[in-house]
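Below: protein 1.
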Amino acid sequence: TDGPHVVRAEVLWDEWNTANWTNDSITAFPALTCLAATWNTDMSAIYGKAIGEEALYRRKTILLGPGVNIYRTPLNGRNFEYMGEDPLLASRMVVPYVQEVQKNGVAACVKHFALNNQEVNRHTTNVHVSDRALYEIYLPAFKAAVQEGGAWSIMGSYNRYNDQFCCHNKRLLVDILRGEWGFDGAVVSDWGGCCDTEEAIKYGLDLEYGSWTNGLSWGLSNAYDSYYLAQPYYNLIKEGKYGTKELDDKCRNILRLIFRTTMAKRQGFGNLCSDEHRATARQVADEGIVLLQNRDNILPINPAKLATDRCKQGDIMTLQYVVPTILVVGENAKKPLTVGGGSSSLKALYEISPLEGIRMRAGKEANVEWVRGYVGTGATQQDGMIVGAELEDHRPAEEVRAEAVEAAKKADIVIFVGGLNKEGHQDCEGVDRLAYELPYGQNEVIEAIAAVNKNIVFVNISGNAVAMPWLDKVPAVLQAWFLGSEAGNAIADVLFGDVNPSGKLPFTIMPALTDYPAHQMGEEVYPGVPSDKRTKEQPELMEEYYREDIFVGYRYADLSPKARKALTGVTCKAQPLFPFGHGLSYTTFEYGKATISGNQVSLTITNTGKVAGKETVQLYVAPKKPSVQRPVKELKAFSKVALQPGETKTITFTLTEEMFQYFSEQQHAFVTDKGAYTILIGASSADIRTQVPYTVK
């Protein structure tokens, strides 16, 4: 079954349309960008446990997830399914997910292996990347899933690497996955990802999925027997070109998968849509929401304070007759966002919209109104599931915007719920975004509202960064992700302060698209250029060069303008709107001075505010005089701590040799770079609170 955010609806056996079952609705969990934003491995564990239980109840053998491809460009339509830009963060978050899913006797299938960092041209692109970037940036999370998580299956990606498709790629599947990492599970293809019988025989593919057939009306030409690993394979054995050694190996891998799943002892029954799962979905959503900006402490919303402020403005003396107005603006406040997005589309038993969540939480304390603000697309449809038809609106954009502005003039506070959705060229499989800006003219609406009401909160529902040209006019910004069944409740939890936000960004948000290195060096770097190896059989082959190398995300943002230009040839002085690891709280934290004893780094952290909260303490390693070009600093550890007001706790990190290593292409190994380092500890990649020197001898 498709994942990675829970089990997909049942579809017809010979096509993708829903089978119209009545017992296949599920609890929709937040997208993996939200899970990564919790920076909490305990959240990953309860997430994996719940998903594994729902998969087991539905009698699924393999859950196609989690996804751990790296956030290289904010245009990637599938970034919402992944865990951000940093290999260490993704590595730590993927392991508990895999372990807990598999405790149910359901195999996790980690995807998409490897270098599947965009959706545009995903079937035709040949990726060129240095071994160093491959091993330092793009492979670590897969390695952790295999060696620490014990993943039972891996899914190959659509793209090519080293001129071979990744679903049967000698370097990736034979040399690295099985040879270097000792993987003993089954390798499966993405749907239609197998493209060559002989390569599939020799280079590590065990299970071939979906080579574009329905097995019925298309006849023998496209029936299942015509799959690359079916009759064509058998014919090669009969001809004597291949023996059965490779076939035996594939059968062993599949049998091992069967023994671990279908034939597992004490497998249990699982459960579906339980109260526990709903609580898990809400807890993960609560902890993954990121408070990006909160000038003048406009959040959390306090209806009583809004009423008091109105009394002061209107010279009204009796508070009991004052009910403040909260205006909610935006299509995403009402639009269902579990259906759509491609293979991770979900058939949720229920979905609490942001508007519903805000209304339920406000109750009688405030009058909650909604206006549309912008017109996107009225309906979402995928695989025969249709939602959101009631959102059709054929008014001109100017009229819809004017309505929102008039309503904003009368409101005590405006909550603009916008961002992206899961439709084509937004956060959606198969296509990338066409622009970095918000769609549907949202920027114009936000600017117009901000001109008439200074109390405005922007809630961004997306799995990607977006441009925010109005940032200095909007005091509060909340990154709310795709939050699943409990979306509205979780958003209301944070907006009203019932939950103190503790999420941290799993990627860097730059001001403009051209501030990302993948978009500074021409089409060769993204989205790729036509290949000179095109043939009549493969006329659309593309070549793409990862020339930014290891400098993805904050590793690039940390560089000086001079170093950036040396890397990309482009002058770029822009600093992040919001750096990697950033996230605010309704309380404040004081970091003590870091001390070091042997390989132990310790510091205290104190909640100096008035409410309980959680803080993610991040440890970065910065080489002073590296022997090779290295990032200014790299995340090497993190710890999330819960603190009551006034409480102090001590955080201790253990420094290991691998924290000071880089991948040497000459030695084909991770090499310890000896010398002087600075251990940096802070609240984000750009907010370092304390540091201590350290020498690797």
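Below: protein 2.
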Amino acid sequence: MNISPLRLLVNRTIRTLCPALLLLPVACSESGLTIRVIDPLTNVLPGIVCPPAGDDTVRVARGENAVLQFVISADDSVAARNPVLRSLKTKQGASLDKAVLGWVRNVQASHAYVPAAPDALQSPSGEYPDPILTDTTVSIAAGGTALLWLDIPIPADAEAGLYEGSVRISGLKNGKRIVADRQFTIQVYPVTLPEQSLLVTNWYFPDKFSFMNGNESVEDDSPAYWECMRQLVETASAYGQNVWLLYETGTPVPTADGKGLTFDFSRMDKTIEFLLRHADVRLIEANHFAKRSRNGWTDPFWANVPVPDGKGSYVYQRLPHDDPRVQRYIAAYFPALQEHLRSRMIDDGSGRSWLDIYTQHIADEPLNENKTSWEGLARQVKQAAPDIRIIEAYRSSSYDPALIDILVPQLDEFVWEIYRTMPAGHSCWFYTCMYPRGNFANRYVTLPLIKTRLLHWINYKYDSPGYLHWGFNAWGANGDPFGDVSAPANDWPGGDSHIVYPGYRKLYPSIRLAAMRDGIRDYDLLKMVEARDSIRAQAFVNAIIFDFNRYDT
């Protein structure tokens, strides 16, 4: 059978929890359309023929998603309409009726970043499959192909068993309506995944909402803003995101004498309340309040703080950490923030306050060269508000555990010995972005999809409970988010800046986002095996992840 090593191990992982197994290979050719099932971890490149999956039965636990990928070939030109999922039932009558069905579109990735991955995909056309368009039709040229994606969430209360169903593709061929069906089967095991345990954040950018609004600007706190936010957080949450960047802070309010500041938290509260209503929220990560002084990579960090102007208002200034105005601001703001967060309760019966889910960024990616200024700011925050946890994408070769609670090194620096043992109450995640490159797992469109899924097997192997990526929807580096998804001017590999695509007041997922979500759920499957047999769980992951940058793909 043509099944990837990862798929084999996922199947074995589920069978560890339930030994049933059924194989049902299926083929189909109808009305001049040939529909083949392709392993969903296969990147189907234009002009390259992919072998069909040797086993058409998808095996899943309850709480996972069953994913199928179809290649449709036409012997004559066809205008294909929206595909339809037909009845998907067991012989006992249980059914699955929710699905994402969409045509996979190709995008360009022109930037030849270095060092390249030894297994980087080589597309003859420079195009790579990625966005899943859920509301469109396609035209298939004579002898051409189209790529169809089917993604079926399996409810936690789904009945176990073999579900049989089909997708139907209708269209026009030489002016006549044609219909083609493709059967498939899904084996749902009597195994239910627990609530997601891995912490995952993708940084999102409300300043890019114009791409979801017909290229018209979206005013903060407007109805259009909140509709775009709803679409974004619900999409991200459905694919495994449960940690959310917070841009809003307490708004400074000058005191009556004009010499000091108090703080209004109403705008910040509105966003937190919105997230708690519309998303799975395990943590809030408040945005950085300091940046490099002159934007040079090794420059010291300066804080952007409001300074009373003596006229009843204030101005923002970027100042060094030892400036008295920075010290006064931190000493005033963070105690007020801490007590405000402590006073707001999460409405879930847990007795937790917002402070229990709040973390604070200081400044992004401190290095050995500017760590002193980062520590100067972090120390002031900890002194002012000792119960606020600090999280940071961190790149220095040493750290003070008194100043940081959640370290997030880059994957190629996650190998450092300082991250092997964490003090009590601390944790170590990892992140990827435009780096690391070479053979490291990442989520570029030019990498095999299995390497995106393997990111979270790395989380499991190295006992890392969280993952961070900077680019959820940083569209526009080259104008069209559906055009060239790399950015040579920024040295961004293809797909680094975004893993979703904008429609009008909606988002389209990508095959990379689906692979990432499935890796997140693999993490939980491995945790379930570990609860029964930790040696076997580690054997599963060791058969795939040899080291931080060596994998069996």
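The longest strand covers residues 176-192.
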